[in-house]
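Morning - protoporphyrin IX containing FE inputs below, output right after.
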Amino acid sequence: MADKYGPIFTIRVGGRKNLIVSNSDMARECFTVNDKVFAARPKMTAFEILGYNYAIFTFTTYGACWRNLRKMAILEVLSHHKIEMNSHVVLSEVKTAMKDSYNNSNKKSMVVTEMDKWFGEISLNVLFRLVVGKRFTGYSEENERIRKAFRSFVDFAASFMIGDAIPWLRWLDLDGGEKAMKKTAKELDGYVQTWLDEHRRSRNHGAERDYMDALISNIDQGFDTYDVDTLIKASFLTLILAGTDTPVVTSTWALSLLLNNRRALSKVVNELDSKIGTKRTVVETDLKNLIYLQAVVKETLRLYPPLVLGVPHEATEDCVVGGYYIPAGTQLWTNIWKIQRDSTLYLDPLEFRPERFLTTHKDIDLKSQHFELIPFGAGRRMCPGKSFGLQMVQLTLANVLHGFDIVTVDGKPVDMAESVGLSNAKANPLKVILTPRLSAEAYA
Ligand code: HEM
């Protein structure tokens, strides 16, 4: 549609007007001069039912409540200081996954792995350990139920509901989505309430304090229409919802791109061997020296941003974008996927060329100041988990590429089909063979 109608157009879905911006100039106009106007989020059934009536701050409208909850998440989990402090958690989860694969490979000399699941396990355990001091070890029926409920939560958050487009049809719940969402919301609330009660009984104030402990200390009274428990539970779910899938999707695409571009893969592995050697695994302080790996991650986020259309914004006042009048109430979608594949900004935009970020585009960073590369969105609602997400992706990728020789199971190129939805996951699982390549002590 962007090719047909250009870099700015509107479509009506039921009663709602949607603005889609598909080039960097239009995006810049939305998130600089009009940033405050577009700082709100639209009302959506999923955000209401699963998000404790918009208390999950990804969905909270712009204002004091959103500001306070976001500030707390940054202070307690997402600031540079906290990310550095907690890097051992990411590292220990990566090492556990590597050790498991190494031990399994000892029995067969190589191990077949679904990498989406491998990355997913690391991400889920890191988030849960930081946020609620819990990790999922091995198989248990309860663990599987919890995982399933969280999976549905993420999937529902990105689903299309007829009642959102045509509000007067909502009460009929024609697709049954609302009923299913309520069931998931109730189940999740049960788990989160249990963890909250447990934390209240055995409060941790010391170095081991997790996000739930911090929330209990910081939130001692309700705000807006929300009571204390709702604010705490919603803040917990905000990080799980926003932070679990995005790093997994990015790591999976990065590995897929590298497997289809063996020259780039060799360059990454050579860089890792020359900077780290073969006797130890990669640690946080190595990342700044892995220049080519950083370029690979940037190029992956350019070609396969996990949120292709960002998260929707809503105009709270009338405004003008690209010379067009945009009435209050219009929903804004940023076509990140299209912006980052623009041939006027990138030579051969569909090609995977990490080198461009070391040469022609070396000044373009991920701080959302350059609108030609905005995988984390831009403006006041841009992703607060950017640095944490990048740390997870870089540490995980660096270690798996350094620790194992990797080939596809069938020896064929990776199928790059994308799934349909807000979150741009691969359509099919990435199955590979991992063969350890470091000395045994590195996996200990
Ligand atoms: C590669 C990893 C990630 C990518 C590409 C990504 C991308 C994005 C994007 C595009 C948005 C929407 C921004 C907008 O509305 O304009 C967003 C919002 C958000 N992200 Fe991320 N994200 C990533 C990782 C994370 C992580 C690890 C966390 C936290 C643990 C996180 C927390 C959030 C939150 C809370 C919001 C909502 C912000 C608000 O509404 O104020 N993200 N992210």
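Note: The longest strand covers residues 8-13.

O.
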